[in-house]
């Protein structure tokens, strides 16, 4: 870039780790002025130590907004309403945080007058996409620097050793040990682990890899029973029947479910998934609280929602999940699916009783002021207004097509 | 019916229980000749005692075909290939057996020259539909007697007491105790419990209700590790790494997984579901072996199948599951979805390592000769042929639509 | 029914034709008091003559509400927004009127205190279902009399001759001639013809069958050009460029398009369709105005709506169309799909220029204040902000999956 | 590229037009040896004149394979089976030819030992994607040169004038006149027109733009009537009832339908569509023969296929259409959808009578040896085995859900 008096300003998503520290120094070398930015989305970090690091390595300032409340209310709650799961298993813990982080990064960029944002995501992953689609959607003229996709960067740092060498030269501390040969991403909702020894999908993950959850085998021998209350498809109260704990604030409630799930070993998965970029990748994820919520929400939703509405809605759910996974949170289609899904949740209310035990979440009971469940109607002992002969007509009419088809084929057994 | 010399012949699906015993006697009273029929689909029964009962209460003969092998190979295996689940939770254990039972019942009817078949299913449930759609599809001119939908029957037996009285008069033994105030359906794949005390969806199911599985809390403290090998989407070998047990025969393999799942408390659910008839109903289901297979098959499928093929296939899976739930196994649409799903499974092969522990099934590792997983491609340390700058173009093009949308709305943050 | 002083009151959907006249007389014979009801949904009828007939044959009174405006605004407009078509061809002209007719019939029933409603639809068609699902949904305890499904009625009137004889005995005028050996249903949106000579799907429909449209071969030799303006997905103005006619009132606008379409032979189809009841049936339909609107709305919708939003929306459209066809307008799922579709239309605005000529509707041009069309972006002569090298990356990343698949199969040409 | 003795060999898709002629010369300048290649997919061209041009401008040789038969049988027929339409209107005429052209180009590249292929498609369109995805899928290590995406090319030729100047310098003839200010793509199935004056979506296309079809207003005043016979979803015979012409050979049959459609003005559309790249673009398309086939195939398909099978199949059709539009013909998912769709066509057989008149295609009648249409069943005069009281039960059971919903809402009118 041009060597002018006025340096180009870049907001760098800075984690405090080796990669983004090297990127910070490198950006400075390239002549940029760097504002470091780290979103607090509930990950377990020493934020002030990171701030000190950023400033030490040359950032003009370090901005660390607390986004936890927004994360729960604007991102996790819609995912709960959508029973959001990608490829049948992944609860989208990382994917849901990215648009929030991008939104705030753009806000910061506008505030500080930066025309660039930068991040340290690799060139093979989903996160680069999620960050950048969010950034472009919210600020179409923003320029993105993704060093791991810039030849001048990745050709210079072709292996980890090059990066270590650069770090050493610039006083950037190296990771203390090689005891954790994998990479991870953490937020309030989940921690994910991938790469390194995990790249071989037939290599079992180390027992001690997880941070948010205990191994189910080490969980307590006594189950905990919770009553989770929903309104409009989101949890509004949790009561622990074992010790009468009661929480209602959204952020506290979610953290409490994490705690319950965590100590009972809930929400660990080992999966291979299909990245947007087209490759398969293997990851270990732990998502304790959201796993409890997915189970409970599914139960209260089926209980209170009309069958056919739910079929339409579940199709929207699938689309929502894929949109989120692929980084399209701030797209017109994701706005639309969120809007429709939210509408479907108006009567999703009631209480679900769940047992949490050694990795499992078991539904025990449910009640609702607006269930379509009618115990008199379903009862085998009560006829009520239901006329069983109607069922005969129903079956005959449903069979009409099948009988015609059979006749055409002369295909009786 | 007319009092002719030649009695009308009916094949009655006879379970040996109170209801079908009363129906047997009642059909005789109405002037029918009754051939009793009971499909052995792996339920835990004293079949000879039932045979004796049937003959005692007036059946001309009792036919008890062993359908276990067909059940596994022709019905459970396609469900495994389809990851078949209804409304996110129910593995279709009853629904899958019904078409098989109906097919054999029609075969028996043709062999004995019966123009009627009869069953004791209630007029509010799914099973009447599944039986009868199967029957009509395979034998369009068959006549079905469903006493619980015939006014002359249900008006006579308006409560359980009427039935008890009738049983007493006809020497039909009453259920010994009232200790199990619910109804159940059992086969090799699952046992379901509903009605009675379970009708209140907020009333917790009794602890001792289940037959195939122990309560997870009473399961062993040590996990079992299995390697399940798949070919064309169905399991062909299970090796228990704990004790080196190895099974390959389909029927044995499935029973073995039931045993593993059962002793480890796998596959219990408490759900409210939407019947085809339109009402919501609450059931407790246990499906140990199939739950293990669903988990393992999902894993090997994602591992070996192209992402986009799987999206198409999963949509077919949903349709298949609903077809099965609603009794349309022998429909042209279900033939079509089965055919397509089967095609998708040609390369679904490999070994999945699973841990089974106190109700949970955990994937540990997987390998396959035909996976699309490419560890070199995904590696963060190897560039290989992958050019990271391509990802930048990919993102920019994907962002094009979003930027236009944003511009139109002048909607930057 | 019981012979009490207080007669049961029934609201009969009365068309003035042979069938419902006989039903009126027959209901009186059965002891009912009958209020006749005929919805004016724009069909071409002598309503006062029908009123006189109803009273003559014993109706206590005859109620003829004018529902034309509601039909256009509450039923046709949502169908336009949904591009509603059943099985690729049928624009749902009859299906859309039925719920409106049912809603008003229930309103009348409540006003006059009737606990019964009756209609003359056959027992094999869709309309019985549409009427009755509407009625039950809006008034769960209403009782429906459908004489063509009552054995006491259909056994008495086994052929048309029995009905003719009964009509003669009761002074009901017979259809003057047999020149139109088919049945028809008419409203403002369309006329349908079926049965009789049309039952043979290989028998060509008579040339003179249609009422709303001329045969394209007899249409004017000079096209008419219209500019149709949309707001929120519904037409708000039509200007005929040929003669400068301009209409804006919804009802007038729709009638005007019918006139244009009608004189130019637009909207005639000959199809076989699948009834909800499961059988295939052949019909001739003419739907002039709505066919023009479908063409124009599709054009402005694609022009103004984001591609991916439209994919989600089109899936909802399909579901909406099937819901309407099957009579589920007043269902929770149809409320939900209508709500979502309506949301999608917020920016569907602009003007479409169409040419109407001898059966064809041709789009000539379109403009919109909120199109996502960007002529600079798409131009082959302007580079603009678009960087063509991005497309290379986009393609490479999209190819990644395909190349892996090919490698796995070693499947080069 | 390196200046070695052994020049790199490139196969260039060469149309004979200005752009690819300049590209040919430019590639030579860059040091490549060029083999020119032009697929004969039925476009109206003087192939020998193009061959002469290619050799004159420096191609080592010119290969012009005749792919017409393959185009019809392997690409158009599957599209007919799939009723393939993109965004409700575009019959995919260009999109279907691209994978065939790419497949043959790769075959040529392998035969001549080229490690490069090149094409002249723009960097903003779909065709670059279709060519290259096809190429990479079939030959993962092929290298693609797309000059309009290479900075060294597009920076040199920034406007048409630069290209004209280069052409003049190199003896490349300029387009004779500017009378056709748009670009076009032509093959046997369709001709498309876009860019230039067409870029303004509100500017009406010139009357004389089309090549395959007459303006409907200039079409004959007398309709032509055809009987089109299908087997397994593809046409096997066409009889023109007007003049008794009969064709059965696939290629001849398709060309004959083009001729009929062409002279009657069938298959012209003016649309805005969404490119894969994300932008909206406006095009004029004419697709005479395939439009007739789409109409006729839809009719015979609904006539012969079970309703529910067709619902599943239509969903696959949509996916197929998008796959083709986006260039994924040689993808695992498109192989899968084609396979499933083909299966669905096994009984799609029979004869459809269509009238073709001034732009319109009208179905008159149809017959089939394997229709599920049962005129006795549907007849209003014949009861047959159908019991109308069954419909009452069918309706009541379908209403159950609606009545419960209404009760919950206490929402009667």
TrEMBL record, chains A, B, C, D:
It comes from the Eukaryota. SUPFAM superfamilies: Adenine nucleotide alpha hydrolases-like, Argininosuccinate synthetase, C-terminal domain. Residues 10-173 form the Arginosuccinate synthase-like N-terminal domain. GO terms for cellular component: cytoplasm. PROSITE patterns: ARGININOSUCCIN_SYN_1, ARGININOSUCCIN_SYN_2. InterPro entries: Arginosuc_syn_C, Arginosuc_syn_N, Arginosuc_synth, Arginosuc_synth_CS, Arginosuc_synth_type_1_subfam, AS_cat/multimer_dom_body, Rossmann-like_a/b/a_fold. Its EC number is 6.3.4.5. Transmembrane segments: none annotated. GO terms for biological process: argininosuccinate metabolic process; L-arginine biosynthetic process; urea cycle. Pathway: Amino-acid biosynthesis; L-arginine biosynthesis; L-arginine from L-ornithine and carbamoyl phosphate: step 2/3; Nitrogen metabolism; urea cycle; (N(omega)-L-arginino)succinate from L-aspartate and L-citrulline: step 1/1. It catalyses: L-citrulline + L-aspartate + ATP = 2-(N(omega)-L-arginino)succinate + AMP + diphosphate + H(+). Residues 182-405 form the Arginosuccinate synthase C-terminal domain. Keywords: Amino-acid biosynthesis, Arginine biosynthesis, ATP-binding, Ligase, Nucleotide-binding, Urea cycle. It holds the Pfam family Arginosuc_synth. GO terms for molecular function: argininosuccinate synthase activity; ATP binding. Homotetramer. This is Argininosuccinate synthase. It comes from Patella caerulea (Rayed Mediterranean limpet). The lineage of its organism: Eukaryota, Metazoa, Spiralia, Lophotrochozoa, Mollusca.
